[in-house]
């Protein structure tokens, strides 16, 4: 779909089996292992693949923000509570260190926070502000209940790092795990 084509984007949360299937399909199309090096460098990439069961459990515990056109998922921003740290093994290293990172004079564990599990905008819809709109929807939904949103970004994913900084995220820690080197970033939801 070109940028000149008229379409109505709706922001909501995943409510159906169809939404879950479409999130998983969009995720697979954008995994680092499924795209070219050129696409990874120019468009960014996803590292973690969720199972249907993991995503269903995440939907049961927190609203998962999606953007749709004609009922079809074109973007998503998945949230996870720290208590779900063991749900996805590839994310455990971040959850294990997160509470003990010091930021603005306090340990992250002293803040009320949640984790952005993954954010993705379908290729045809990039460059139209949808990334920022997904995060603004998160701020509206989660801001009254949480101080911070935390996530980690591969240090080689420059596009994602720039996009997160544009929204207001700050790098608070860098670490290496079995998958990659990561920037842990925080976004202040209040104040």
Textual characterization of the structure:
- There is one protein chain.
- The protein has 191 residues and is an alpha+beta fold.
- It has one domain: Gcn5-related N-acetyltransferase (GNAT) (Aminopeptidase, 3-Layer(aba) Sandwich), CATH 3.40.630.
- It has six helices and nine strands.
- It has helices at residues 17-29, 37-43, 52-61, 92-98, 130-142, 158-167, and strands spanning 9-13, 65-69, 72-80, 102-103, 106-107, 113-121, 148-154, 170-176, 181-188.
- Strands 1-2-3-6-7-9-8 form a seven-stranded mixed sheet. A two-stranded antiparallel sheet has the order 4-5.
- A hairpin with a 2-residue loop joins strand 4 (102-103) and strand 5 (106-107).
- The longest helix has 13 residues, at 17-29.
- The termini are far apart.
- The model has no long low-confidence stretch (mean pLDDT 92).
